[in-house]
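Exercise 7. Predict the joint structure of the components listed below.
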Amino acid sequence: MTDKNENLLEVSGLKKYFEVGKKKTLKAVDDVSFYIRQGETLGVVGESGCGKTTCGRTCIGLYGKTAGQVLYRGEDVHQMKGEKRRKFTKQVQIIFQDPYASLDPKMKVKEIVAEGIRAHALAHSEDEIKKRVEELLVTVGLDASYKSRYVHEFSGGQRQRIGIARALAVEPEFIVCDEPISALDVSIQAQIVNLLEKLQKERGLTYMFIAHDLSMVKHISDRVMVMYLGKIMEITTSKNLYGRPEHPYTRALLSAIPIPDPHVEEKKVRIRMKGEIPSPINPPLGCRFQNRCPYAVEKCRTEEPSLIQMEDEHFVACHRCGEIS
Ligand SMILES: Nc1ncnc2c1ncn2[C@@H]1O[C@H](COP(=O)(O)OP(=O)(O)OP(=O)(O)O)[C@@H](O)[C@H]1O
Ligand SMILES: [Mg+2]
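Solution:
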């Protein structure tokens, strides 16, 4: 798709299935291919259960894969061993959705943040660790004196900042941000996004930024990947996605975002999805979105559309692509 040297992460034909109950397979991620360039943010969106978290976790080797391949700087993530594996666990970090559940309540902030520094021997003395922890807290907008407190003493937004400090402590290159703002108050969400953007600029970080709603990823993403029932429906630049969305599912997600201007809001063409999201254990035949798609035709019910390139940087999986206005 692009010059291989620019890509930090290259995912091809990745599948992650879970065995659930007798002879039942849940296809959480089902044959996805994409890349993430060094220094960019790839937004990943889709409704709950479409496989965003599973995709992110499988990409960084937290989950084994069922099939396909994930390359990080050209190295197979699922084959890395010994020193290579150790190095990779430092290069790649994850920030979780729930800042309440992801931080150990029995540990002080300084212990949480210092854990990775110790594990990867990134400091030579206790004094240096202390200094690093204080610097990291200040970097994420917290007071250095907070280091001696426990996480229950903080608000959701502050806890997420601690989660970010913990991730930054090992000086990573790539961070999977798994819905880092979804659990926060709307007023705090922008602050955390701004912080992540600032850190990205200063440190040249690469992000996979997962969210369930397109409004959350708009400002931070260079490109956006739209998932539905384990598949990629559309992947393109933010500009294309918000300006010229192709897939009916993308359009439906965009329809759900209110536009602050009442004139625009009134004239907006709304695409309403029918029914509920089907189970990934028994996904619909043909296109996975067909039973909810207002544009589905016979072909959509029988033949699965592949992800095809519409133009440079714009890939869509839809039989009706280009036919609907
Ligand atoms: N460990 C597991 N065992 C069995 N099924 C799983 C497991 N983890 C996830 N799943 C299933 O895989 C599918 C995808 O889940 P995943 O958590 O990746 O979705 P998601 O897009 O991140 O959703 P959300 O927006 O709710 O976080 C879901 O149907 C989920 O129930
Ligand atoms: Mg998730």
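Discussion. Residues 18, 20, 26, 28, 46, 48-54, 212, 280 surround adenosine-5'-triphosphate (ligand 1) (CB under 6 Å).
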